[in-house]
Amino acid sequence: MADMYASLRSNVGTLGQILGETIRTNLDDAFLEKIEQIRQLAKSSRQGDEAARDEMLKLLTALPDNELVPFAKAFNQFLNLANIAEQFHTISRNCDELVCVPDPVEQLLGRVLSSNIDQEKMLDCLENLDIDLVLTAHPTEISRRTLIQKYASVIDILAALENPQLTEREKKQQHLRLRQLIAQIWHTNEIRNERPTPVDEARWGLSTIEVSLWQAIPDFLRQLNEQVEERTGKQLPTDIAPVRFSSWMGGDRDGNPFVTAKVTQEVLDRNRHTAARLYLKDIVVLVNDLSVEEANAELLEYTNNSLEPYRDVLKDLRQKLRNTVDYLNARLEGHKPEVDLSSIIWHESDLKEPLLMLYKSLTDSGMSLIANGLLLDILRRIACFGIHMLRLDIRQDAERHSDVIAELTRYLGMGDYNHWDESEKQAFLLRELTGKRPLIPSNWQPSDDVAEVVGTCRLIATQPARALGSYVISMASKPSDVLTVLLLLKETGCPHPMRVVPLFETLDDLNNASSCMTALFAIDWYRGYTKGHQEVMIGYSDSAKDAGVMAAAWAQYHAQEELVEVSRQAAIKLTLFHGRGGTIGRGGGPAHEAILSQPPGSVDGRIRVTEQGEMIRFKFGLPKLAVQSLALYTSAVMEATLLPPPEPKPEWRACMQKLAEESVDAYRAIVRDEPDFVAYFRAATPEVELGKLPLGSRPAKRRVDGGIESLRAIPWIFAWSQNRLMLPAWLGAGEALQAASDRGEMALLQEMEQDWPFFKTRISMLEMVYAKAEPNLAKYYETCLVPENLHHLGEALRTRLATGIKAVLELTQSNALMEHTPWNRESVTLRNPYIDPLNFVQAELLARTRKEEEASTNVELALMITIAGVAAGMRNTG
């Protein structure tokens, strides 16, 4: 094992050594020795040495106030550097075969072409793929953007140092730069001083495109084209875009009062501005490249037989893009400049058509080699990003829409819409949707909340269709929730049919999703509006928080099956939008396995998936990583479409239904019915203190005065990952598996785990969570923080954890967790000696801050850094 990870361990060692030298330079030898002593004791403690654990705790509790922040910084930054080394290892030249699997698209094409699937069918599937990855801010990256940029530079240096042709002098220069970067990282405050605004979040999303995806998209398509050409002798179309990107950053107003119509307008302008700026950079290079004279008749006629026809067209585009950047700069500065639309790039065709003309001329003139360089890259960027960069989704809670209609009906003397039953609501909405008179009076002065919803709809009406994605309705449950939004869009003058997408989130809503859509599809007017295509969003976070991961996963699976059938009967194409979080408790996990575990027929070449928070950086933060992630998504969607998984056997369904029922009972018996649960949760985790950490723009709760039910899924997961119990990601699941085992169903469970991708993925995710859980650390938090009369609950939870681990090990027939995924196990093992001391200190600091009326600045900052450090070590915040 050591040899397999020699390159990774070498890089971790190098970065750790430089960090140690930095600490010694800025503090002293004695402090560095104490850090190293604590690390070694943590390692020994992990191996069961009780004396080492006691010695480590003695050192940690004796840390003076002035050493708390540097101690937390040291371990936090080591974990961040370990993450960097691991991230780099997956794209390193020295990567081993267990980590760097062969290219997934190459493997898939080989598998598809060697099966009985027709080559034309495979190419048709590839050319019509519609994979939309939706970037979302929450839980927002816990690392600051300035640090993320420095971490990326560290990876660049690690890559440069792998070059065997570097001279000794060049190696010294790279090591010097590495030392400088780590010193800069050490002297940068890890914690933001202020909470980011929605615009800050949107800018962060755009920076991921600029530094990585802008390059990764053409690189990926070039590689994909080579593989297709090798096997079929055919080229991919110039405008192929199997993967596109949308965003919720600046459009998601569900429970976020800071996302207003004005903010959304600014974000839309920023998206356009970034696109124009990046296309301008490309066109400037292309002006220099395309100095050729020979052209086809169309281009020569267009340029009046110019001697440099390509440059003439490109110079015109260059000027239009400069004008566009200037125009958008003025808008972003708050001005309302007049502009002649013919002088700027305002429609996609303004940029695409002239470039296509150049491409055709080059190929017609025997210069395909030149055409398929940067020019083709730009055309493929246009196919992926358009001129709006990211299509912005709008999301709002269903209740906010019904409140608008209710306030309006009260004003018009028609009664209170919110008090009508569903059939009355539908009759009213359809009457207004099909009628010609306006519903909103010109002199109506709505309340602020209602005015904001109406203002958002008015803004949508002014935007080009390509700038926007879907209108997502949170907590949707009834047909009227969808019809209400359609009426608001009609009344505010929206000229194009925007996709309106119900989001089914709770267990009950998932179970009733097909009934809701059946009722909608039965409405002739609505079927006409859909034009044969419906998008439905499946909520993972809130359903798991409502029912536990096992019951939620089965409800999601079952809802998708029913929605596929309902849509098939209505002859409507269905796109499923998966609202997956970064963590297992919020539907997270490897995307490839997740897609292949969906019900057969539910993918069919189309899928939308949220990519959240820090997972965006882990998957798309570097061009090479992004190419890998794009390949994984493409191969998974093609495989799920062309080689779908088997239908589950009736006995599997029956077993899974029983597991779901027992798991939801076990989960709710604790979360809902245990009278001490809320008090235990608030005492045993840093849930309250998390509110002080300026993570994202959105408040942690939907309602300020609400309890657990109003707490968002992200802080709910985040809090339990901090004390290492990981409770939301396993509670209920292990108890249900053990009950099935006790009934003599272990052989059936093992068959399901072997042959049913859905169940196999669920068990794999459980295994990973159990491996990350640390009951002894959770017990330490309890000892330090929880009143003794609540300790019985901690004991019960840890017993349930042990039950689940035992059941999973019996099911997988393993001696240890993650035995079959050594890379994942190694990843967890590598971090533990650095996370553990942060956890112990965090528990001590929580106890100290809760006892003192006003904690010192050092203590507060050290506590925040431990939270950031544990999040870095666990590899996700929520």
Automatic annotation (TrEMBL):
GO terms for molecular function: magnesium ion binding; phosphoenolpyruvate carboxylase activity. Its cofactor is Mg(2+). Pfam families: PEPcase. Keywords: Carbon dioxide fixation, Lyase, Magnesium, Pyruvate. It catalyses: oxaloacetate + phosphate = phosphoenolpyruvate + hydrogencarbonate. One of its GO terms (biological process) is tricarboxylic acid cycle. The active site is at 138, 545. InterPro entries: PEP_COase, PEP_COase_bac/pln-type, PEP_COase_Lys_AS, PEPCASE_His_AS, Pyrv/PenolPyrv_kinase-like_dom. Coiled coil: none annotated. GO terms for cellular component: cytosol. Its EC number is 4.1.1.31. Belongs to the PEPCase type 1 family. Forms oxaloacetate, a four-carbon dicarboxylic acid source for the tricarboxylic acid cycle. This is Phosphoenolpyruvate carboxylase.
